[in-house]
Amino acid sequence: MSKSEDNYHHEGGNLPEHNEGGTQEPSVKHEVIDAYWKANIRLLVILLTVWAIVSFGCSILFVDALNQINFFGFPLGFWFAQQGSILCFVILIFVYSKLIGRIEDRFHLDDKDHEKKGGEQ
Amino acid sequence: MSTQLLTFIFVGLTFVLYIGIAIWSRAGTTKEFYVAGGGVHPVVNGMATAADWMSAASFISMAGIIAFSGYDGSVYLMGWTGGYVLLALLLAPYLRKFGQFTVPDFIGERYYSKTARLVAVVCLIFISFTYIAGQMRGVGIVFSRFLEVDINTGVLIGMGIVFFYAVMGGMKGITYTQVAQYCVLMFAYLVPAVFISILITGNPIPQLGLGSLVNDGSGLSVLQKLDNTLIDLGFNAYTQGQKSTVDVFAITMALMVGTAGLPHVIVRFFTVPKVSDARKSAGYALLFIALLYTTAPSVAAFARLNFIETIHETEYREAPGWFKTWEDVGLYAWTDKNQDGKVQYAPGAPFVGTPNFTDARGVQGERLVTNELTSNDNEVYIDRDSMVLANPEIAALPGWVIALVAAGAVAAALSTAAGLLLVISTAVSHDLMKKTLMPQITDKQELRFARMAATVAILIAGWFGINPPGFVAQVVAFAFGLAAASLFPAIFMGIFFKRMNREGAIAGMVSGFLFAFSYIVFFKFISPELNTAEHWLFGISPEGIGAIGMLVNFIAATVVACFTASTPQAVCNMIDDIRIPAARDIAVD
Question: What is the value of ipTM here, to two decimals?
Answer without folding.
Answer: 0.85
